[in-house]
Design goal:
The protein is an alpha/beta fold. It contains six helices and five strands. The protein has two domains: about 120 residues, Rossmann fold, CATH 3.40.50; about 35 residues, no CATH class. The protein is about 40% helix and about 20% strand.
Length: about 170
């Protein structure tokens, strides 16, 4: 059995993530969507909320398992007996970052391979950062995230109010 890990913070999970996970599930016997619970950046959602939204998103996908983790991804792969790390590539700049990470992971654990899937064209513009910013400004994110995630985003921003400091507003409000 070939088990793959698709790691990320998923803050929030979006259609681009879902595309990569579901396509990976066609290639591997099992895909573990691993929600990192100690990100270096400020998260909009708590680790528990990110985990729950991700679990609900993949509730009907038999070959996809969702779990949380912390620490090195390659060490997590060893713990769950996964042979592959799945990563998604949207744009050219993603390649350089993922290439460096793949080399570092190979030095840490040579038995874990990295497989990069190029995102489907309709998802290339989607990032969690974009989703958070659009939602924080009250914009429609229904074409980027499932309804349950959109509802959670709008509720979270209502809770935070107009003075929220989690999502830095960049270009979409100008």
């Amino acid at each position: 059995m070939v088990r793959a890990v698709f790691p990320g913070t998923f803050d929030p999970i979006h259609y681009g993530h879902m595309d990569i996970a579901r396509r990976a599930s066609r290639l591997f016997d099992e895909v573990i969507v691993a929600v990192y619970n100690k990100p270096l950046k400020n998260s909009l959602f708590s680790p528990e909320d990110r985990l729950e939204l991700t679990r609900q998103t993949f509730a009907n996908d038999a070959k996809i398992v969702v779990t949380g983790y912390s620490g090195l991804t390659v060490k997590f792969c060893q713990e769950v007996n996964a042979q592959v790390i799945v990563r998604g590539l949207r744009v050219f700049s993603d390649f350089e970052y993922e290439f460096r990470m793949a080399l570092a992971n190979h030095h840490l654990e040579a038995d874990v391979e990295v497989v990069a899937l190029i995102t489907s064209e309709e998802h290339t513009f989607i990032s969690s950062t974009t989703v958070r910013e659009v939602a924080s400004l009250g914009g429609d994110v229904s074409f980027m995230v499932p309804p349950l995630v959109a509802d959670a985003l709008y509720a979270r921003f209502r809770e935070l109010g107009n003075d929220q400091q989690i999502v830095p507003l960049t270009s979409l409000r100008d």
